[in-house]
Amino acid sequence: MATKRDYYEVLGVPKTASVDDIKKAYRKLAKECHPDLHPNDKDAEARFKELNEANEVLSDPEKRARYDQFGMDGPQNPFGGAGGAGGFDFSGFGGVGDIFDQLFGGGGMNSQARRNAPRAGEDLQYELKISFEEAANGCEKSFEFYRDETCEVCGGTGAKPGTQPKTCPTCKGAGQVRMQGGFMVVTRPCTTCGGTGKIVTDKCQTCGGTGIKRVRRTAKVKIPAGIDNGQSVVLHGQGGPGVNGGPAGDLYIFVSVKPHKLFKRNGTTLLLDMPISFTQAALGADIDVPTLNGTVKYHIPEGTQSETEFRIKGQGLPRVGSTLKGDLLVHVKVEVPKRLNEKQKEILRQFESQTTGREYEGSKTFLDKVKSLFG
């Protein structure tokens, strides 16, 4: 059996990594090798399962603490010394609880019940790209994805139709085997059947005896207005199949928003850089300001300086789950005219010759500071 890699190594994070760092690393790596992006790629599928297993342990504080303390397979020997009393090897037990179930009257039933208990299926992820407008206004999108489902031919048993899994000859269907080490008699999960008590001799040709097959599905998701890049929507029950009759997992739709040609965003605030002419800035003007829903009239006061910001209420983005919208922040930049003809240049020269200096507050303040420095 191949040795599993250290979970921290799998996610590429140090042992001091925070839960947020672990989740961030998992999402990044899971996207790179997601089976939906690499159909029929067994290496990508194996890598994806490895990442899920590492994330499931390290993102859970209790599981992570046990892993940090005992490693991959739990405590090898709670009594100290190699192999314990009588040289018995305790490796392969799920943890201290399994061992003490055997030593103090548990009879292995608790651990066996845990293995056969219903468990929720694996959660899946899908990256959905949408436009800036779709993120702002909300939309409904259809998409295709792959997921594992219970094989309908064998009903999930893994056995060829007309046959049934057979009782494991090693453990006689108990799912556990008894082993003696010195004065102790303990039990451990049967390695022949994996603790299920059953083995498949005539495998289902559709699923290869796994009871699971990979299926391409189409789903629809409603994207709420105001969703931001990296946020997600959950489709409950659309993930992997449950185990032992447990519920299916969930499908997480992570949204990737395409950049807009004009606008940027900061939360619910919409940002716009807008050029205005020298004349509009000097004399003031009513200008047409673009928004996500058309244009609105806005008055630029005379004497407007470049880099001035104006706020237009209610023309921003909604907060998810709310009808209230943020504002549009317009950042104006005064354009200096280029390629003037001689007549235009002469008009500007005449204008400049008639100024008194009071028209340029910034220049006057600057000159006053220079005079104060150099007398």
Q: How many domains would you count in the coordinates?
A: 3
The CATH architecture assignment of the largest domain turns out to be Ribbon
Mean pLDDT: 82
Secondary-structure element string: HHHHHHEHEEEEEEEEEEHEEEEHH
Going by helix content, strand content and strand pairing, the class is alpha+beta
Helix content, binned percent: 25-40%
Q: What's the story with the biggest beta sheet?
A: 4 strands, mixed
How does this structure look, described?
This protein is an alpha+beta fold and 375 residues long. It has three domains: 1-72, Orthogonal Bundle (Helix Hairpins), CATH 1.10.287; 80-257, Chaperone, DNAj Protein, Chain A (Ribbon), CATH 2.10.230.10; 263-374, Sandwich (HSP40/DNAj peptide-binding domain), CATH 2.60.260.20. It has helices at residues 7-11, 19-32, 42-58, 61-70, 96-103, 109-116, 132-137, 278-283, 342-353, 361-374; strands spanning 124-130, 139-150, 166-167, 176-181, 184-189, 198-199, 212-223, 232-235, 251-257, 263-266, 269-277, 285-291, 294-300, 309-312, 328-335. The strands form six sheets. The protein has a four-stranded mixed β-sheet. The longest helix has 17 residues, at 42-58. The radius of gyration is 34 Å and the shape is elongated.
Itemize the secondary structure elements and their pairings.
Layout (H helix, E strand, L loop, with lengths): L6 H5 L7 H14 L9 H17 L2 H10 L25 H8 L5 H8 L7 E7 L1 H6 L1 E12 L15 E2 L8 E6 L2 E6 L8 E2 L12 E12 L8 E4 L15 E7 L5 E4 L2 E9 H6 L1 E7 L2 E7 L8 E4 L15 E8 L6 H12 L7 H14 L1
Parallel strand pairs: 1-9, 11-15
Antiparallel strand pairs: 2-7, 3-6, 4-5, 8-9, 10-11, 12-13, 14-15
